[in-house]
Design goal:
This protein has helices at about 10-30, 60-70, 85-90, 105, 150-155, 170-175, 185-195, 225-240, 245-255; strands spanning about 35-45, 50, 55-60, 75-80, 95-100, 110-125, 140-145, 160-165, 180-185, 210-220. By secondary structure, the protein is α/β, with parallel strands linked by helices.
Length: about 270
């Protein structure tokens, strides 16, 4: 490569070509700080993320995640993964972000960027059983979707028997079959799956509302980039202003008349802005 004095006119084209190649090599040696393609993961739990009968990925959070990436101007991929694997994907840097409930495990490896959706966390059981406080759950078996942590007070209460289940659907099936006393999770997750299973409202008892939890966009600390994070935060704000996120939520929840938002209690701590 020639970086000395300007060559004679006959060699000028060759010199320019070599100079261009040299500058290109120097540019490629500098790491790009602004992500060109985002790698998204979505929890495998209807209605948030799931596959249709013909294998097509879809879901409420799946669509919202894609919309946020598009609004921010990024290309993206989005993979639906089991709940626990979403933490691993973000923690290892295999994924840029996930939208899901926050907890200590996730926040060790990811930065809460923006709230996207707030939902009540409930405990629901058979109609023959009445729950009015956590104390009423002492000695009871409560199904928890594997990898889920929904309420700090519930998690800390050792008098409650916590039974891991595969997903919301299994929790609801076991409740109605009276194999467990109750299931815990988001109101939407539990009731949507009950609806899909053909279970009527009357087959479930009155919910105990524990807290309001937030589906927030969590960005991988290993992939952290302030320009990308700022673009995503702005995109969420724009979409909320246009009610675009609400439209997706309504599309999934307006097909049945369950009370998906029972009376809420004070929310948990907000994501750091």
């Amino acid at each position: 490569m020639f970086f000395g004095r300007t060559p004679e006119p006959l060699a000028l084209d060759t010199w320019r070509k070599n100079l261009s190649l040299g500058l290109l090599a120097l540019t490629m040696a500098v790491p790009c700080t602004f992500a060109k393609e985002l790698r998204i993961v979505t929890i495998d739990s209807a209605p948030f993320g799931f596959h249709t009968a013909d294998g097509k990925p879809t879901g409420m959070i799946y669509e919202i995640s894609n919309l946020i990436a598009e609004e921010a101007g990024f290309n993206y991929t989005n993979e639906i993964l089991p709940y626990p694997r979403t933490v691993h994907a973000v923690g290892s840097g295999d994924a840029d972000f996930v939208i899901r409930y926050g907890n200590a495990e996730l926040e060790n490896v990811a930065i809460p960027v923006a709230r996207v959706l707030s939902l009540p966390t409930i405990v629901v059981g058979h109609p023959s059983v009445k729950f009015e406080s956590l104390k009423d759950l002492h000695g009871k078996t409560v199904g928890i979707p594997r990898g889920g942590r929904f309420d700090d007070a519930f998690e800390a209460n050792t008098a409650i028997l916590k039974y891991p289940v595969a997903d919301y659907a299994q929790a609801i099936k076991m409740v109605t079959a009276q194999r467990i006393d109750a299931g815990i999770g988001s109101s939407v997750g539990l009731y949507y799956n009950a609806h899909l299973l053909g279970i009527k409202k009357e087959q479930l008892g009155k919910p105990l509302v524990l807290s309001t939890q937030h589906f927030a966009l969590h960005f991988s600390k290993k992939r952290e980039n302030q320009e990308t994070i700022a673009a995503l935060r702005i995109a969420v704000a724009r979409l909320e202003k246009r009610n675009a996120i609400k439209k997706i939520v309504d599309k999934y929840l307006s097909t049945f008349d369950w009370d998906l938002m029972p009376k809420q209690v004070p929310s948990s701590a907000a994501p750091r802005q």
